[in-house]
Amino acid sequence: MQIGIVGLGRMGAGMARRLAQAGMAVMCYDQAEQARAALAGTAHISCTENLAALCARLEGERLVLLMLPAGAAVEDTIRDLVPLLSAGDTIVDGGNSYYRDSMRRALELSQRGLRYIDAGVSGGIHGCEQGYCLMLGGTPKSIEIFEPVAKLLAPHAENGWLHCGPSGAGHFAKMVHNGIEYGMMQALAEGFSLLAARKDLDIDVARLAETWRHGSVVRSWLLDLSAGILEDNESLAGIAPVVADSGEGRWTALEAIELGVPAPVIMAALMNRFSSQGRSDYSRRLLAMMRAKFGGHPVQSG
């Protein structure tokens, strides 16, 4: 079996290597020559200079996996792929696309005889070695076609991948997954902040994090990562207190509002990220001035 992969960022390149290690023929394309060059000479991997060449080298019913940023990159690439593909071919969107966009794309492509799978992917930069968790949306037939690839990408052939439901279900599941991730990360960060604040108790925060990794209720991969971070730099010196948000947390919060389903932890974690980006500075300045006006409290300049 063979597959085409478009987008050779860390996830895309990692997937290409994992599939190639299993003996699958992988055709790759990325706009950046440097990204293509990084895979040059890897067994079972061939890189092409454009989409047309990639599609031409894939045989039979073609399977093309997109590992691109959500939004215009996915939209533009699908537009460019459509005239290069034939009825029965399958496009898999492995990025973090908005699930409503995925539902629309699936319908539009089906009208052209093309199959579409929305694949939520979790595993980060460690997925190449440990496997990726896959959340798939699409028709049973499209999933049947992709199943051999899913079994190779997942941590185990029978575990770590799931046909979640019809088109949109895979990216919806990944959206909620990332919302949960926001909350878990926020809780760990706040807890370790409390521990670090009690200097008088002389708690070795890094050693405590390592201790929690063994048998505690809060043990998790995020805790594993936190333990490693604190061991290397317990004071977190040199790290700016700014946390980006990539979109999935916002979509999850909006979905909670639309459905009327309470999600206060996820919402609070998202608001904290906004605050870290300086988006609460104006309101804080106004609060400081109100406090000064009604109570005569001093205002710090800055």
Secondary structure elements and pairings:
Elements: E1 2-6, H1 10-21, E2 25-29, H2 33-37, E3 45-47, H3 51-57, E4 63-66, H4 72-81, E5 90-93, H5 99-110, E6 115-122, H6 127-130, E7 133-137, H7 140-153, E8 161-165, H8 169-197, H9 205-212, H10 221-232, H11 248-259, H12 264-279, H13 281-295
Structure, described:
It contains 13 helices and 8 strands. It is of the alpha/beta class and 302 residues long. It has an 8-stranded mixed β-sheet, with helices on both faces. Helix 8 crosses helix 11 (248-259), helix 8 (169-197) packs across helix 12 and helix 9 runs antiparallel to helix 10.
Outline the low-pLDDT stretches. none
Strand content: 5-15%
Characterize the largest beta sheet: strand count, sense, and whether it forms a barrel: 8 strands, mixed
Gyration radius over CA:
23 Å
Average of the residue pLDDT scores: 95
SSE succession:
EHEHEHEHEHEHEHEHHHHHH
- Termini, distance in Å? 62 Å
What percent of the residues sit in helical stretches (DSSP H or I)?
40-55%
Helical region count?
13
Count of DSSP strands: 8
Quaternary state of the chains: single chain
Judging from the principal axes of the Cα atoms, what is the shape?
Answer: globular
The spatial strand order of the largest sheet comes to 3-2-1-4-5-6-7-8
Class from secondary-structure proportions: alpha/beta
